[in-house]
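FORM 7B: Structural annotation worksheet

SECTION A. Query
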Amino acid sequence: MTTPAEEKHLVKKLVVVSDICSSTAILEDLLRTENQKRWRNLLIGLKDFLRDERDTHGFIMYKFIGDGWVLLFDEDFSSVKLFGLFTRLCKEYDSLYKRYIKPVLSTVVEPVGITFGLDRGTLMKVMMDGTTEYIGRPLNVAARLQGAIKDKDQNPHGKVLMSKNAYADIRDAIKDRYHVIEVPRELRNIAGGDNYRAKKLCLFERPK
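SECTION B. Predicted structure
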């Protein structure tokens, strides 16, 4: 049970964890050919894109985690705008990848693209060493969902794996726009994660 003081720091958010596919393999290839600055240029390009989107839509760029970002949106943020942003981010990455990375790779790297994990719920906002941090199950679930996208999926680019909780409130708004299926996944270190029933949304595949 939370105290009144703790309740002041509780926030309800949509939690998004994004990831760049095959980032380790790409960076290792670039290091071998002394082209690592190109990876930096790609990441800066993505950061600038997200900052522009943040200024328009008002979400929080919470953390950069090496090969992707953790983004926090207000719980009532439009699902249509959310997945539209995901689509634009994927296209921006594709453009930057073709500009900076693909021309200098010495090997074929697959898969490439961006994937997303999505959950919603209550986070606790705390100050640590002068920095705002967030704690809560939705962060863990979103991260595990993102990590499970590539399980049994050889073409994960542009895929969103979300909890049923996140999907329930947006189903009607997106049912005619996106292809969504239920998939079983194992989410490590998550209660009930042994046979988790997640919803997988394909940004670039329309409903039949």
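SECTION C. Observations
Residues 4-202 form a domain with the Alpha-Beta Plaits fold (CATH 3.30.70.1230). The first strand starts at residue 10 and ends at 20.

SECTION D. Sign-off
Analyst initials: ____
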